[in-house]
Structure formats: C-alpha cells, structure tokens
Specification:
The chain is α/β, with parallel strands linked by helices and about 425 residues long. It contains 15 helices and 15 strands. An 8-stranded mixed β-sheet has the order 8-7-6-5-4-1-14-15. Strands 9-10-11 form a 3-stranded antiparallel β-sheet, with no helix packed on it. It is globular.
Length: about 425
C-alpha cells in the first residue's frame, strides 16, 4: 500500500550513479574542493559492480522500467568498470526502456563507445548519450580539466557510427561563448540530435559589473572562469527569484516537527540566500514558503504519481533524487534538513542496498512519511535542496543550470 509518494511497484525510472570516480577535474564540481585542486575528502571512491546490480535489480524489475539514466553527482559513468556490462544487461532484458548517459567522453576507446552506441540507438525510445563538452580544442579543457578534445571527438564519432543517439551539453563561459555556433555546427555535421547551452549559477564571486567568476588554481598558472558578457548567455536565476519574492510571507512553524525536530544541526534557519549581482546584496527568502514540484515524483492532480523515480548512489544507497543524494558527501558538512530525516530513518545504513532490499527501503519512514510531509508549505523540515532545485515559483535549475533542452534553438534536426 502506498502511504507516501513512492511505491515500490510503481517505480519506473532509475537515476544511477554507477561510480563516483572521474577522469576530469572540473572546478565547480562537488567532487573537488578548492576549485578543482583537491579531491573532496568525504568521498570514498567506488563503483557499482555488475554482480551487485543484477542482485539488486532482477529481470522482472528491469523489464518494467521506463528509463534508466546514468549521471550522478560526483562521477562520470565511463570511469566505472562495469558500465557497459550493466547497460547490456538492461537492454537485453528491456527492449523498450530509454537508456541515457552523461559523460565528458575523454576516457575509454572508440571501440567502447561504438558498443555503447549499439545499445542506445533509438531516439523514439528516448535513448541518448549526452556529451558534456564546453568548448573546442583550445577551450574545453579550461573547465573540463584533464580532458583531451581530440579523444572526445574520436569517441563521439564512434558512438554515432554505431547509430547512437547523441546530444551535446555546452556550459557557456566568457572564454568559450564565441565558439557556440562552431560547436553547434560540428554537432549537426556528426548527426547529433540536440545542442543545449547551459548557463551555470555556481559562481564563487562577482566583479564590479555584477559578472560571476571563479579563481581556478592550476600548476601552469592560475586563471579565471568568468561569466559571459552577453546578457543572453547569462543565467536568469536571480531575475526570476526577484519576480516571486513578493509572495513570500512570514514563517509559520509546524507543531509536530517542532517537537520532533526543533533545530537543524544546532541551528534553526528558515532563510535561503541568493546573491544579486545587480544590487550586490544577498536576497533572503523563506524557502519553506515556496511550493515544490518534485522532479522525481510527479504528484500533481490530487496526488497521483505519473513519474516514480529513485536515485542510486555509487555506494549503493537509495535516495529520492540526486539533489538529496549528494548531501551526505558534501565537503562542507550539510545542514540540510534531509540529513535529519535520514538520521531519523536509521542513517545511511537504512537505505543501503548491500544491507536491505529495495522494497523495504521504499516502505521506510523516509519515503512514506518524513519526506512527503515536508513538501507541504510551512513545513518545519522542508529541505532547502527541495526548494532550490524543485520550487515551482522559483528554482535554480530551470533558469540556467539545465539549459533549455526543449527549446527550438536546441534542436538540430
């Protein structure tokens, strides 16, 4: 029986972080600290192995899936040992599901990518390899540190030669903004389906003009990652926030969770802040006053679920989504209320597939009582991540981070 928003028998999609390893050193990635200089010390590098995967997700379960996509928080799927065998297992036991993978494509061989392309060759089914490439031969490595553009091109071409459905995600910076049209044309000539320009919000500082930047340490000389000067290529995150800020009233606590959960790691903060580069001031909002439209579970229309997705971390832990799944391994220890929910549920062990079955995890309080209740307005245990990633009136992802994959200009054919 489904008491919360998740039900084991209704799960039809998996977001799989096959590994938390990666060959690249992207400065804004939470895998690293000091803008790419050092590995996040909270990460214990690991993979999901084939034998574990088939034990956790048997043929009956796989056969009912609508989609599996491999992206994650800390790793690149091509860095895992068993990515290709796992994807072969999925395709052999489900001919209709969409297989999606996100990668920097600067590891593995063209032969490996050709085999992958054979498994992901139906656009109508929803297959896609999303190549995350932020520039050309003279610029891509400035953000995708430690990658090789020539190798990436070889792997792209091999994937396409097998008939693989390919999309290109391009994070725009000042240093690569002038190459967007050239890269888009390259994608078109290789037979890619989409070319998606993404506008990051992950700036650490802002200059006197209100433009974001990050200082990147490098053995060959430190340099800056800078926001594009063209207004059309900058994210609209804060602009959208300012449009909705007027709807945010004063905070009202929830009595039940006041008793159960009066503070978060020693502090009870209702405030979420965003830096406004125009006024150069912090905008403060009460994040509990913004309605949530969960991306993992579509609970519109009176609570009916048309999308029932889970996130599997590289450690084999089952999270509602990647946004919450990234919290336990943050370098700066997370004070997000989800961490308290996880503690109340029994900690990370309580959601570990090495120790528990998927049905028992989904039937736990975390999924059936704690998290679903926090989607209510004014709820004292609302997660900041839920608001910032899935807020209806405002969220970061829809105003820069994800780009616009459905826009007409994104389509190549």
């Amino acid at each position: 029986m489904k008491n919360g928003l998740w039900a084991y028998k209704e799960i039809d999609a998996i977001h799989l972080e096959i590994t938390n390893r990666c060959n690249a050193g992207c400065p804004m990635c939470p895998r690293y600290i000091n803008y790419g200089a050092d590995l996040n010390p909270n990460l214990i590098e690991t993979d999901i192995r084939y034998d574990d995967f088939v034990k956790w997700f048997d043929v009956d379960f796989v056969s009912r899936l609508r989609k599996l996509y491999a992206c994650g928080n800390y790793g690149d799927p091509i860095a895992a040992k068993d990515t290709l065998p796992i994807f072969k297992y999925l395709r052999e036991n489900n001919s209709h599901m969409a297989l999606v993978i996100h990668t920097n494509a600067s590891a593995r061989s063209p032969e490996w990518f050709y085999e992958l392309g054979l498994l992901m060759n139906d656009e109508r089914r929803g297959d896609s390899c999303v190549f995350s490439v932020d520039g050309l031969g003279d610029t891509n490595h400035l953000y995708r540190k430690n990658t090789n553009f020539d190798k990436i091109l070889e792997n792209m071409k091999a994937f396409r030669a097998a008939g693989g459905v390919a999309n290109w995600d391009y994070i725009v910076f000042k240093h690569n903004a002038h190459q967007i049209d050239t890269a888009r044309q390259m994608a078109r000539e290789m037979g890619f389906t989409k070319f998606n320009v993404k506008r990051t919000t992950r700036w650490s500082k802002y200059d006197n003009e209100g433009l974001g930047y990050c200082e990147v340490p490098d053995k060959n000389g430190d340099y800056l990652l800078q926001q594009p000067t063209e207004e059309s290529l900058r994210h609209k995150n804060v602009d959208n926030l300012k449009k909705v800020i007027g709807i945010v009233p004063n905070y009202v606590s929830n009595e039940e969770f006041d008793r159960m959960y009066p503070v978060v790691n020693g502090k009870n903060s209702d405030i979420y802040t965003e830096f406004d580069p125009v006024t150069r001031k912090q905008i403060e909002i009460n994040f509990k006053k913004i309605e949530v439209g969960c991306r993992a579970v579509n609970f519109e229309n009176g609570g009916s679920s048309s999308n029932n997705e889970i996130f599997i971390s590289a450690e084999g832990e089952v999270y509602p989504c990647c946004f919450l799944g990234g919290e336990p391994n943050r370098y700066s220890r997370s004070d997000d209320s989800f961490m308290k929910m996880l503690e109340l549920n029994g900690g990370r062990d309580s959601i570990d597939l090495h120790n528990h079955t998927l049905p028992s995890i989904i039937e736990s309080d975390l999924y059936q009582r704690l998290l679903p209740r926090t989607f209510e307005l004014d709820h004292n245990m609302r997660s900041k991540q839920c608001t910032s990633c899935c807020g209806k009136e405002w969220n970061k992802l829809d105003h820069g981070e994800l780009g616009d994959p459905n826009a007409e200009e994104t389509q190549l054919r």
